[in-house]
Design a protein that fits this description.
heterodimer; A: 264 residues; mainly alpha; MetI-like fold; globular; B: mainly alpha
Chain lengths: 264, 258
């Protein structure tokens, strides 16, 4: 009984409207039909946006994993009084407005930004080059936004590493690559999977970063959805994109979980 | 790994994660008219200018209102749910957890659009009412999660004892349980406040002309101007968040709860 108000509130406000929205993708001219999907898939722009979103999701998750392992392992090896402080600095950006975090990249990558100043100053180009509204800009923004989630997951996983497992492997003659592949990776796989899922789904469903750093030139699924609704009042496409986003988030959750449990 | 490699790796990662904040703080300090880094001369004028923009003042007030009262409502709904989840063996406990967590799992932009099209427009809600409901629902998952964790660390014999001594279940909750989970409830409030204040996608479609949350207003403002005021405002917001988290950590041990 006590849980009822919260459940009812969430179900009416969040679940029902979302389900109706998803159903709109299957309705064309007031009849149930898959025509909307066929039309949606046949448009080259939609295909580009879909694959771009997927590609950026994988890239951000992959690069976060590589940098995340190096960073988490380094933090893990600090004396414990520093460890807490550095960990706090990694977590802190998560509490800061994503708009503020993303806006910083406009200052860095803009025409009069620090990168362009360096490029022109070094004589690599006579005029500033366009760095904003490119996939690279969106990639950097997403990486900065979501990498802390990967580092946090990996550090929690490393707390479970047996104390001397790494030292034992070293003594027995393993090089760092072997230590990583044979000891660290298998024992922290769960953290990698949790972090990977958070970063991947976070990147797929981000709105602010592609809106500010990608604009109309580098649409991703969320910005495409916004545009379809605001510019064209096209709720069939909106329903379809919503279905794709939810399927991909839930799907990747399940898939990654299976990968995590498969090899053990 | 050597000591220097360790420092180098951590240093590079922190520069990437935190360096941009120093850049927006500096860009806001510019004396010039255009956004640039390094800034063209130093002045605080853009930091003052932020307070002169009327739409920023209005949207800041709205965001504050939503963050405070939306989070309080979420706690009113969420604390009983957390109590039920931790103290009773509920039928469908997993389903309850999934439904209550839905606002985090489903992408915000979809939630906002669904809410607008099928509830707000048909039922003629005002923009502020719609935003208030959305921000409440959005915070419920955090409230339930943090408070459930606190309740699970609290042994239930004390409240059983209070009930045996003649307290009602509700009385025992108010007199025994609540004082003991104060820290968790406060941590849930702070986490909810920050989440609500910073959130964009859910409010994107729900915001109407003249009634916008601060982050949405910033997005609209940065499309039409290229002066350093958004950088100054971003820096102020970042400093505000850091301040809140710093105080919460110092006086509450915030990170233990979240």
């Amino acid at each position: 009984m006590l849980a009822l108000p919260a459940v009812l509130f969430t179900a009416t406000l969040f679940l029902l409207p979302v389900l109706v929205l998803l159903s709109e993708g299957f309705r064309v001219d007031d009849a149930w039909s898959l025509q909307g999907y066929a039309d949606f898939i046949s448009k080259p722009l939609n295909q580009t946006v879909f694959f771009r979103t997927l590609k950026l999701g994988f890239l951000v998750a992959g690069v976060s994993a590589v940098i995340g392992y190096a960073t988490a392992f380094s933090i893990f090896h600090l004396p414990s009084k520093h460890r807490g402080r550095i960990f706090g600095l990694v977590v802190l950006p998560l509490m800061i407005s994503p708009v503020a975090r993303t806006y910083a990249w406009i200052v860095i990558l803009g025409r009069t930004g620090i990168v362009n100043d360096a490029i022109v100053g070094l004589g690599l180009s006579d005029t500033p080059i366009r760095l904003l509204f490119t996939e690279t800009a969106v990639f950097l923004g997403l990486l900065q936004l979501f990498m802390p989630l990967m580092i946090i997951s990996l550090i929690s996983a490393m707390e479970n590493l047996p104390n001397d497992a790494v030292a034992a492997a070293r003594v027995l003659g393993a090089n760092w690559l072997q230590v990583f592949l044979k000891v660290i990776l298998p024992l922290t796989k769960e953290g990698l999977v949790i972090g990977g899922t958070l970063v991947f789904t976070g990147s797929l469903t981000a709105y602010i970063t592609p809106a500010i750093l990608g604009g109309a030139k580098v649409l991703m699924l969320e910005t495409l959805l916004y545009q379809r609704v605001n510019v064209a009042n096209d709720f069939v496409s909106a329903g379809i994109i919503a279905t794709i986003l939810i399927t991909m988030s839930f799907g990747s959750n399940l898939l990654f979980k299976r990968i995590a449990t498969a090899r053990t | 790994m050597g000591k220097w490699t360790t420092f180098l790796i951590i240093g590079l990662t922190l520069t990437f994660l935190i360096g941009p904040f120093f850049i927006i703080i500096a860009a806001g300090l510019s004396a010039g008219e255009n956004l640039a880094f390094p800034p063209e001369g130093l002045s605080l004028k853009w930091y003052w200018a932020v307070f002169e923009v009327e739409s920023f003042r209005e949207s800041f007030a709205l965001s504050m209102f939503l963050a405070v009262f939306g989070t309080l409502s979420a706690l009113v709904l969420g604390v009983p749910a957390a109590y039920a989840l931790s103290r009773y063996r509920l039928p469908f406990a997993e389903t309850v957890k999934t439904i209550v967590a839905a606002p985090i799992i489903v992408p915000g932009i979809i939630v906002g659009l669904g809410l607008l099209r099928y509830l707000v427009i048909p039922l003629n809600f005002t923009v502020s009412m719609a935003l208030f409901m959305a921000h409440t629902a959005l915070v419920i998952p955090y409230a339930v999660r943090v408070v459930t964790a606190s309740l699970e660390n609290l042994r239930s014999d004390m409240e059983e004892a209070a009930i045996l001594l003649g307290c009602t279940r509700f009385g025992a909750f108010v007199k025994v349980v609540l004082p003991n989970i104060r820290g968790g409830v406060l941590a849930a409030f702070i986490l909810g406040f920050v989440t609500s204040f910073n959130q964009v996608p859910v409010s994107l479609f729900l915001s109407g002309p003249g009634v916008r949350t601060l982050p949405i207003d910033m997005l609209a403002y940065m499309e039409i101007t290229y002066d350093p005021s958004v950088a100054a405002l971003s820096a102020l917001l970042a400093i505000m968040s850091v301040g809140i988290i710093f105080l919460a950590e110092k006086f509450l041990g915030f990170s233990r709860y979240v």
